[in-house]
C-alpha cells in the first residue's frame, strides 16, 4: 500500500521545482537567443542561475518516489488531458498574439506528437506505467537489497557518463531509466529515512548552495586553465547537470550497509 498522505512542506517543494523548471528554460532560452560573450557578467549570471535551477527535475521525480505512484488508467488519461490542454492553451495564446501561426502540424505537436518535442513527457509517462513493478520490488526487498541496488545503479551511471560513447539522451539522464533510479531513491528515503535526509532545512539549503557554487567554480576554472577547456569544462558542467548525476553517489554511500 502506498502512503498518499500529503505533506505541505513537500508539496511546497514540488511547486518550487515547477517554478525552477520554468526559470531554467527561460535562462537557457536567453543564452541561446543572444550573443553573450564568454566570461562576461551576463555569461556568469546565466550560468549561476542555471546551476541553481537544474535540480528541478530531480526534485520532482524524488517527490514522486517519496509519495509513491499508484497506477490507474484514469490517472494516465488525466495526465494526457493536462498535457494536451496546457499545450493547446499556450499554442492558442501564441497564435492570438502573433508569435505562432495556426496549422495542422503544430496541432499534432501539441497533442499526440508532443512526445517528439518534450522528452520529459514520455519519460514520466513510462515511469508511471512502470510504477507498479517498481513498487513490488520495494515491498519485497530488504533495506540492504535496496541500498545495494541503488549503489550499483549510480556507480554504473557514473561509468556510462565517464567512459561510454552513447547518445546524449542516455548519458545525461533524459530518459525513464534515470527516473527509475530517482524514484527508487525517493521510496528509500520515505521508508528508511537515512541520516542525510533528516538534516535541518538550514543545512539542506547550505548543501544546495555549496554544491551549486562548487560546480560553477570548477567550470570557470577549467575553462580558463585547461589545455582542452571546451571538452573538460563540458564534462565538469554535465557532471552536475546530468539528471542521473553521479553526485548522488556521494549520498548513496551513506545508506549502503555491508
Task: Draw up the topology in text.
Blueprint: H1 8-33, H2 41-53, H3 56-67, H4 73-97, H5 104-110, H6 119-139, H7 143-163, H8 168-171, H9 176-192, H10 201-225, H11 229-241, H12 247-252
Helix pairs in contact: 1-2, 1-3, 2-10, 3-9, 6-9, 7-9, 10-11
Explain how this protein is built:
- Helices cover 74% and strands 0% of the residues.
- It is an all-alpha fold and 258 residues long.
- It is globular.
- The mean pLDDT is 78.
Short structural description:
74% of the residues lie in helices and 0% in strands.
Keyphrases for this structure?
12 helices, 0% strand, single chain
Mean pLDDT: 78
The number of helical segments is 12
**Order of helices and strands, N to C?**
HHHHHHHHHHHH
Q: Are there runs of 5+ residues with pLDDT below 50, and where?
A: none
| Structural class assignment | mainly alpha
Terminal Cα span:
28 Å
What does the radius of gyration come to? Answer: 20 Å
**Percent of residues in helical segments?**
over 70%
Question: Which shape, going by the Cα principal axes?
Answer: globular
Taking the sheet with the most strands, its summary is: none
Amino acid at each position: 500500500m502506498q502512503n498518499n498522505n500529503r505533506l505541505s512542506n513537500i508539496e511546497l517543494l514540488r511547486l518550487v521545482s515547477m517554478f525552477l523548471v520554468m526559470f531554467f528554460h527561460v535562462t537557457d532560452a536567453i543564452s541561446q537567443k543572444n550573443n553573450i560573450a564568454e566570461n562576461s557578467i551576463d555569461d556568469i549570471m546565466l550560468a549561476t542561475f542555471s546551476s541553481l535551477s537544474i535540480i528541478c527535475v530531480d526534485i520532482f521525480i524524488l517527490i514522486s518516489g517519496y509519495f509513491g505512484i499508484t497506477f490507474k488508467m484514469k490517472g494516465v488519461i488525466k495526465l494526457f488531458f493536462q498535457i494536451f490542454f496546457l499545450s493547446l492553451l499556450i499554442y492558442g495564446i501564441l497564435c492570438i498574439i502573433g508569435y505562432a501561426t495556426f496549422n495542422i502540424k503544430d496541432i499534432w505537436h501539441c497533442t499526440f506528437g508532443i512526445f517528439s518535442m518534450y522528452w520529459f513527457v514520455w519519460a514520466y509517462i513510462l515511469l508511471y506505467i512502470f510504477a507498479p513493478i517498481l513498487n513490488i520490488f520495494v515491498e519485497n526487498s530488504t533495506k540492504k537489497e535496496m541500498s545495494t541496488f541503488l549503489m550499483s545503479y549510480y556507480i554504473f551511471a557514473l561509468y556510462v557518463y565517464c567512459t561510454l560513447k552513447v547518445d546524449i539522451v542516455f548519458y545525461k539522464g533524459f530518459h525513464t531509466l534515470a527516473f527509475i533510479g530517482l524514484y527508487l531513491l525517493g521510496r528509500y528515503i520515505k521508508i528508511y529515512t537515512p541520516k542525510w535526509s533528516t538534516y535541518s532545512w538550514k543545512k539542506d539549503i547550505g548543501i544546495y548552495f555549496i554544491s551549486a557554487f562548487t560546480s560553477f567554480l570548477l567550470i570557470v576554472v577549467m575553462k580558463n586553465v585547461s589545455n582542452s577547456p571546451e571538452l573538460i569544462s563540458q564534462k565538469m558542467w554535465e557532471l552536475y547537470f546530468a539528471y542521473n548525476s553521479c553526485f548522488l553517489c556521494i549520498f548513496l554511500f551513506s545508506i549502503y550497509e555491508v
